[in-house]
Amino acid sequence: DAGVIQSPRHEVTEMGQEVTLRCKPISGHDYLFWYRQTMMRGLELLIYFNNNVPIDDSGMPEDRFSAKMPNASFSTLKIQPSEPRDSAVYFCASSLYNQETQYFGPGTRLLVL
Amino acid sequence: ELKVEQNPLFLSMQEGKNYTIYCNYSTTSDRLYWYRQDPGKSLESLFVLLSNGAVKQEGRLMASLDTKARLSTLHITAAVHDLSATYFCAVPRPPPNTGKLIFGQGTTLQVKP
User: Fold this and answer.
1) CA–CA separation, A72 vs A74, rounded Å?
2) Chain B residues near residue A33 by CB distance under 8 angstroms
3) For chain B, what is the mean pLDDT?
């Protein structure tokens, strides 16, 4: 298995632009998680899905952030409009329903100028 | 509120020395996870501790779990430079938030020659 796949790996954009991050979980995994990591705040869970349904989005910082999972093999995290404080590394992770070990993707490094 | 706290947050040590990283958590859990993150990389699962008294070892790292004390330790024996990384512990959130892990702040280990 190729593991969790994220794209793009790096994104540089200007404030106010829309940013879309993409994730393909490991095949057969039922859970999908979006995290954000910064030096100041550490690793934060933004939202997670179970069987494509959002379970807990309490970590989404504000309405500018939205996430979807239209099918079991694809999820997006969108920021619109982006702001410099959104600059971070965004990780996607997935896990099996009966195992809690989460497998992380390589991350997307986002820089908002 | 479930809290997972690691101590220390930063550790600089000489090669060949021994040290222990501590992970305390505030809720009952019989499972705990350790992850490793190399600089600029993603998180990788290191150990899965599934019961009280569980001990896992890989190379110079040994992890243990005491569920009664709500404490896990990650012991480093005769550190080498390759162990330089950030180590995270994580505890599963109780139902109904099944599948969700709460991560500690991370302990950054720097091993100097």
Assistant:
1) 6
2) 100
3) 93
